[in-house]
Each structure stands twice: as C-alpha cells, then as structure tokens.
Design goal:
This protein is of the alpha+beta class and about 500 residues long. The chain is built from 18 helices and eleven strands.
C-alpha cells in the first residue's frame, strides 16, 4: 500500500468515523437479522445462489484494488442521506406487508449503502461505488424469472428440433420424442447459470474496463449469453437422447453437462472481452472540499449515522407493534370432514393433519393454520415447509386441471429424485386462493384490519411408500391424487367452516 493510502487508513481523523460505520452496520444487522438469516439459508439451499458466499470477499478485493483512487478524497459526512432513507423505509414496510422477502432484503442492503454515504460522504462513496454496489449480489434475487426462463428454453427446443428434423410433441414444458420424454423443470431453466453469469460479468467489467459504455455492454452480453446458451444446451440434451435412442441416457448427467457447457461459455466471454480491456487509470481532478475541523466532521458523521439508523428502525418497530396485536389461530378441529363415503383419522402428533380413506384412495392431508392477521410471507413460508418433501432437482409444478374449464387452486408438485407428489392449496378469508399479487394485497389489508377466517395451507399426498414404488406405480399414485382433489370439491366448504374465527 502506498503512503497516501496508508495514511488514509491510519489517520486519527478516520478512525472514529470508521468505528461509527462499524457500529451502524452492527445495529442494522441486528434490526434486519431476519432478512440476513433468510438470505444465508437461501445461499445454502439453492445452487443458484451458492456464489453469494464469495460476494463479500470479492467486494473487499475490488475495494483494495481501488485504493489508489481514494488518494486526495476526504471524508465529508452527508446528512441528506437521512432523507433518502425515508422512501426506502416505506418500501421495506410495503414489502413486509406483501410478504416479499427479496424486497425487504434489497431495502436492507440499500440502508447499508446509505449508511456509508451518510458517514463518508458523496465523493468517497462514488470512489467506492463499484465494490459497494457489488454487495447487492448478496440478495438472492431473481427466482421469479424461472417460469419465463422455462418458456424461453422451451421455445429454443421447439425450433431447434424442427431445424434438426427431430419429430417431437411439445405440451407445455413436456417434450416427447420417439426415444422418450423430457421435461424442462425449474432446475433446467438456467437461472443458476444466469445469476452466476451476471455476477461474473459485473466483476469482469469492474476489473477490465474503466468506461461506463464498455462495462454496460459487457454486462448486457453476460445476461444474454447464458440465456441463449442454456437454450442450446437443452437442444443438445434432447438431440443426444435422439441419437443415443434413449432419453434416460441423455438426461442422466444433464446437470454435469450443463456446468461443463456453462464453464465453456464463461471462458468464451473472457476471451471475447480481453481485446477491449482498458488498463489505463482514469484521471480525475478532485477539487478540494471546504476546510472542516475534524471535530465538526465527527459530529456530522455521528448525526448522519444516528439519523439514518433511526429512520431504518421505524418500519421494523411498527411491524413489531402490529405483531404484538396479532391473534393466535383459533383452528381447533382435529379433522376436516370430506363428506359421505370417507373416513378420517388424525395423523400422529406433532403433525397437524389426517389420513383420509375414500374407497380405495388413501390420502395423507397436512395443514398449518396461521393468525388472521398474518401476512403473505408467513403463508408462503408454511407453503414451502409443507412442500419440502417434494424438493429435488427434478421438481416440477403445475396447476391441477379439473377438466371442466374452471381454474383450480391446487398446485401439483412432483419430484423424481427422491420420488414424491403432492397437491398444495391455500385458503384466505375462507376461500381457496392462488398465490399472487392479489392474495398478497388481500393479506396485507387483513394484517391491518383482521379477518373472519384464519389462513390455512394444506397439502394432500397419497399414503404410499414413494421410495418403494416403481415408475408405473408412481404415475398411478399421481393420477389418484389428481382424481381425489377433483372429486372432493366440497373440501372448500369444510375448510371455510373450520377456519372461521370463533
């Protein structure tokens, strides 16, 4: 480290503001601990976000790499950052009421950015903008793109097989060729490749380019290339099954094929980007800031940091107050009536649910009731918990088709590794609802005004040993599940009755 940079890091003028910045980060970490915990859990559980563990080390390296850019830039606390925190606090509150964890996490990260801006000032923040903005990759954002990516991949496969002359029947995400059937599952949509490519593209652009135009172009290319590449990957796997005369043989190691192909794409991006690199340092003329006494800077940094943290805490404190007023669910029924011809018995504790026997169909029904003032976040958390047995690389989801043209609120989830199938539905205000913005808005209003019914999430799955079933028996069990849900439309009225608040 050169002398100016060393002086910058050891100067007594900087020591207290940096300690203040650390204290502010600790307070924000405590206030938004739920967002942090949810993000880390997603990094662990989802292969699309495993790279997030590298984001902080990468940002630290980028900051160290730009240490020379900090020469001549002095700290000037910027109090207006407190005003910028107000709309961010409102966004966090809206995201919390709508149950959108990604929105809460993005708002929390923005508070971190604003804290640095408030304490160190605009000039220093701008000098460190690249590493600071790279921290947004800590937020596991983008999962909502999966259906669109599945559509794009299916489009590539459809037109690719036509060009290759491979006969195929495509229904939704199911691709049938004479040699077998392929399914473009969520894991095959390419989200993991896309997110990792964007993170790499931003890192490469920050390290290799100085101008905003070249950086923007390379980041755009890093977005488009993995989408197109994943389409060609899917075409290759289906065509390989056609050539090998076995869909199972082609799909057996498709994840490995995908990562090998993705590694080649990243290497290609690097090679294409190297000729346009900019090694020269950007020269900046830094006008001297107004002379301010160190004590005045310290007081300004203290006021700016305290004010910003106070604004950031307002919405969580308000939500805590609302949670205190939340009533507990009053669902006391041990079983839910399915009508004549069905017998039910409670599942063993501590599971909340019942085993229903309706003729030859035997189904395990599990549910979780929530407070009438719960937000959509709690409902979707219960949804994910109850659907966890169906998690896997080959997981697929689709809405149940009752066959009468009417939409169903039952979501059918299937997995092959390990094998499992279940139907899941949610009841809001005593009525079945499909998760979406309408449900989130309804629950946001209920969280403030209350509701006459407790929200309930229910799953139904055939009472079989899935691991012991062969492929044929699995398909029979899945068909029985769909037939059971279609045959028991009266379940809606039964749930409405038992979820009524007493």
């Amino acid at each position: 480290m050169n002398a100016p940079a060393a002086a910058l890091s050891t100067s007594s003028e900087w020591r207290r503001p940096l300690l203040l910045l650390g204290a502010g980060l600790l307070v924000l970490g405590a206030v938004f601990n739920e967002e942090i915990s949810a993000a880390i859990q997603t990094w662990i559980d989802s292969t699309a976000y495993n790279h997030c563990f590298l984001v902080i080390p990468i940002a630290a390296y980028l900051l160290w790499d730009r240490r020379f850019d900090l020469r001549g830039v002095t700290m000037q606390p910027w109090r207006p950052a407190m005003l910028l925190a107000v709309p961010v606090a409102l966004v966090w509150l809206l995201a919390e009421r709508l149950g959108i964890m990604e929105g809460r996490q993005l708002a929390a990260m923005t508070f971190v950015e604003l804290l640095v801006l408030a304490v160190l000032g605009r000039r220093l923040w701008w000098a460190m903008a690249g590493p600071l903005l790279y921290l947004y990759f800590l937020v596991p954002f983008g999962e909502f793109l999966t259906p669109q990516l599945q559509d794009v991949t299916t489009w590539f496969v459809r037109h690719g097989l036509d060009m290759l002359g491979v006969p195929a029947y495509i229904d939704g995400y199911v691709i049938e060729i004479p040699q077998g059937t392929f399914f473009i599952a969520e894991a095959c949509a390419g989200l993991r490749f896309l997110i990792a490519s964007i993170a790499f593209g931003c890192l490469y652009a920050l390290m290799m380019y100085r101008g905003p135009v070249r950086r923007g172009l390379f980041i755009f290319v890093s977005i488009m290339v993995p989408i197109v590449a994943n389409g060609f990957r899917a075409i290759g796997i289906v065509y390989l099954g056609y050539v090998l005369n076995s869909a199972q043989a082609a799909a057996a190691d498709h994840i490995i094929y995908g990562w090998v192909f993705f590694s080649f794409v990243i290497l290609l991006l690097i090679v294409l980007g190297l000729p346009f690199r900019q090694d020269e340092l950007t020269t900046r003329s830094v006008s001297p800031p107004p002379a301010v006494e160190p004590a005045a800077k310290w007081r300004g940094a203290l006021v700016a940091a305290a004010g910003l943290v106070a604004v950031a805490c307002v919405s969580p404190v308000l939500v805590t107050g609302l949670a205190i007023a939340t009533r507990s669910p009053l669902l006391t029924a041990e079983t839910i009536d399915l009508g004549p011809g069905c017998s039910v018995s409670p599942l063993p504790a501590p599971e909340r649910g019942q085993r229903a026997t309706c003729g030859e169909a035997v189904m395990d029904m599990r549910w979780q009731a929530l407070s009438p003032r719960s937000t959509a976040g709690a409902v979707m958390a219960a949804w994910r918990r109850l659907c966890r047995p169906a998690d896997g690389e080959s997981r697929s989801e689709a809405w149940l088709d009752p066959g009468d043209g009417k939409p169903s609120a039952w979501r059918i989830i299937r997995a092959d590794e390990p094998a499992y199938a279940l139907g899941v539905s949610v009841w809001i205000d005593g009525r079945p609802k499909r998760p979406g913005l309408g449900m989130r808005l309804r629950m946001a209003l209920d969280s403030l005004t209350g509701s006459a019914h407790a929200p309930l999430v229910m799953t139904v799955t055939p009472a079989v040993d899935w691991a012991a079933l062969n492929v044929t028996r699995r398909r029979i069990a899945e068909d029985e599940l769909g037939a059971f849900l279609v045959a028991h439309r009266g379940l809606d009225q039964s749930v409405e009755a038992v979820t009524a608040v007493r």
